[in-house]
Amino acid sequence: MSATKSRSASIGQIVQHVLLVWLADNIDENNNECQTTIAKLQSSIGNVNTFTSVDVCVGFIENIHDKRICMMTSSELGEKVIPRIHHMPQVDSIFIFPAGRKRHETWMDEWSKIKGTFTRITPICDAIKQVNKQCEHDSLSISFLNADAITTEKKLDELDCSFMYTQIIKEILLKINFEHEHFEQFIDYCRKQFAANKYELNNIEKFRREYHDHTPIWWYTNESFLYPMLNRALRIMDITVVINIGFYIVDLHRQIQELHRKQFHQQDSCRQLRLYRGQGLSKADFQQLANIQGGLIAFNSFLSCSEKRDISLNYACQYLSNSDMVGILFVMTVDSNQSTTPFAAVENMGCFQTESEILFSMHSVFRIRHFKSIDKNNRLYEVELTLTSDNDEDLRILTKRIQEDSDGRSGWFQLSVVLSKMGQFNKAEEVCQVLLERSTNDREKGPIYHQLGCIKDQQGKYSKAIEFYEKALKIDQEIFPSDHLSFAASYNNIGEVYRKMTAYSDALSWYDKSLNIQEQSLPSDHPDLASSYNNMGIIYGEMGDYSKALFYHEKALQIRQKSLPSAHPDLGGSYDNIGSIYLKMGNYSKALSYYEKSLKIRRKSLPADHPDLAMSYNNIGSLYGQMGEYETALPYFEKDLQISTHVLPPNHPDLGISYKNMGMICERMDDYSKAQEYYERAVNIVEQSLPADHPHVQACRKLLKDVRKKS
After folding, report:
1. Cellular component terms, GO, for this chain's entry (predicted)?
2. DSSP labels for 1-56?
């Protein structure tokens, strides 16, 4: 039978963390009884996906990676599908409906995720609602920051990007004056997201009518679309949702801030609190937590805790039967007079009556003090945390580095710059598009076009990069004198893109313009001059003028040796570039010496999956390949490919080159079938990302054509 999906399947997934998969052989969404069942299910879990085919259902589940799944299926189909999906960590709970003739069948005992058998829809809706609530509770965005990574001079992309994202988002939102039109835009957005869910549409209309009749805390605790939408947006860094829901984030933060001022800023009320939170963590998150004792943990969304240990411990104990999760009892020490994040007692302020509940504003940062198992099977842990203060040195360093890496910009532009440096190119572009829509004159648009050019360059979309750079340049030419230093960066960036497109004469022309301005305006040992000399060396190397290439690379190296720490990544770049020139000259011993210097620095100063490390592995592999030492070359190319597939977009030209290099080594080792497989992947990528007449495209096509004759 073919599979059918409810209309909410393509919509609600965008804004909710938990979804329901209903597998049955008699689902007919045109049937009134079936429609009624779906409507009841949607009142418990907004996103309902229906299937009549086991294979299609399993395929759907396999492709879900960032959500939790509740499954409902019949006893008969359950015997077929559960053995195929039970091991998948995204599957949280399974409900048998309708139950077979025997309410409990022996085959069910094998599968711990089966939560019960049901003969009526109302009890199963209640059970699904509880599981949904628990999964949403555990879906909080959490960042883990190792103390060593904070204090060493490493690049921003080594740190947890969600930490950077939420800190900057919070700063930006608090500076915006939200008006009624923003509220109406949010309502329109929600209506589109839940167009097929009548239950949530009613909640949205209630929210529109009654928003100002209740407090933000009341709405936060209300069981509707708002809480899961907010948590998911902050967890997956969905800039579209964050922009739409921004007014509410600010309202909720300010209510907590005001309550904090009233409750804790009086002299006699300053005290130290002991708070608790029961939490389930995935095994991967638990391992991260276990590895960073003494480091920082940040809860990036709003955080609810209790003053009652037993309530939180009972919650953590619920995970003892879940093989994919680990139960955590966070024990938090909080000095109410020195906290970096406002928090407040919200007892009886929510939609439901609560006892001894404390709510923190978004992005609360804690120091991990102690970590211990509190059950005999090592499935339940107690983790002691202390809320950071303004005097926390690691937090101060982090904040300073975020400000430095955002190039001194503020607001949404700052967010785009940081997202780009973290490799979040699509999200960085989203922010720029929002800024363009809101800009009112060319002076505001110029830096945005330049940033879009940088993003497209890093994505390997070179023609679009030049288009944006030239738009920015045209605006700057109307504003600044012709020798203004800002033009040097624009000329250099355009030259760099032309170099990547192998348009060397054009690239050299732009590099010359950039260098002329810098030599007139900067001191002779300025790092920006080193970058320009480095680029001139690269272009002459690719044009085959090796003596000029070495001249410029050595000038760059001299400046960097004077002005940078001995393990700075840019020094590694200079050594790598000089090694590449010696390789082209056939001087393998000198090339290897420089490559090894570069690799040593990069291993010390960069994360293990950084693209520059991939470049080092690729270059050393190429050297050994040219020397005919294929067995030695292969593991270097494998490391290059492993990193490249992890960090680059799937159609990035550099990834195509990595596949090409793997193919060449396999071919020379007479493994023609593997070589053909790698060449096919390379051709597919470079044909998508580069012009048809690009040398890389032509080379990959020829290699594939030749190896097919050998296969």
Report:
1. kinesin complex; microtubule
2. ------GGGGTGGGT-SEEEEEE-TT--TTSHHHHHHHHHHHTT-S-EEEES-HHH
